[in-house]
Design a protein that fits this description.
The chain is mostly helical. It has 10 helices and no strands. It has 2 domains: 75 residues, no CATH class; 115 residues, no CATH class. The protein starts with 24 loop residues before the first helix and ends in a 5-residue tail after the last helix.
Length: 209
């Protein structure tokens, strides 16, 4: 039986750091779900553009480790798990914008699916455009349709995964180590895309907690 729902307290972005993970898995899970619900509900209920931007860029100022402490151990098919993955994607793009630009562009060449449209592929897909896309996807989670933002993030992951696979195939003979790294990254991105797509379906069914 799941633990009874406790109405979360609302808090400002900087107050994330006040939450420390405990040793009790039930307590850790409760904190993860409470903070995720509180954050999403507070921002979606009409926060100012300034507050939304602070939430989106929280990891830039406080470090991704703070969010990891809160959400990284949550189920992949949960609200905190979904938010954690969206922040991770943004962090990855911002940290490796030039590489993401190359892999994203290669992925666009490989795919003829709706992912290109869903992700909102920028033209050109340069490093600056990648950073903007990362912010736009996470921004949409708090100001638009949450399931749509999840689907968009999943589409992005599938495109970059395709780019990783194609680049790995080209590099296999001359740079086998790099090819292996890209193949592993493609597998992780594909898995993340699947997890985000499941979360999007659960959200539309009012079953993502």
């Amino acid at each position: 039986m799941s633990a009874p729902y406790r109405k979360p307290a609302l808090f400002a972005g900087h107050e994330f750091s006040a939450f420390q993970g405990g040793d009790d898995p039930a307590e850790v899970s409760a904190i993860a779900h409470d903070t995720a619900r509180a954050l999403l509900s507070r921002v979606q209920e009409g926060a100012s553009a300034e507050v939304v931007q602070r939430v989106v860029s929280f990891a830039d100022e406080n470090g991704i480790d703070t969010l990891a402490e809160l959400w990284s151990r949550s189920s992949a098919h949960s609200l905190p798990g979904a938010l954690w993955r969206m922040y991770l994607i943004r962090d990855l793009i911002r940290a490796q914008a030039p590489q993401m630009s190359v892999l994203f562009s290669e992925g666009l060449e490989q795919l003829s699916t709706a992912d290109v449209v869903v992700a909102g592929a920028p033209t050109p897909a340069g490093p600056d455009e990648m950073v903007t896309l990362a912010d736009t996807i996470l921004h949409g989670a708090f100001t638009g349709d949450f399931s749509g933002a999840l689907d968009r993030a999943a589409a992005f992951c599938r495109i970059v995964s395709a780019g990783c696979t194609a680049t790995a195939n080209v590099s296999d003979l001359t740079h086998p180590e790099r090819a292996g790294t890209l193949t592993q990254q493609a597998a992780r991105l594909t898995q993340t895309a699947h997890e985000l797509a499941v979360c999007a379906r659960l959200w539309r069914d009012h079953a993502l907690d």
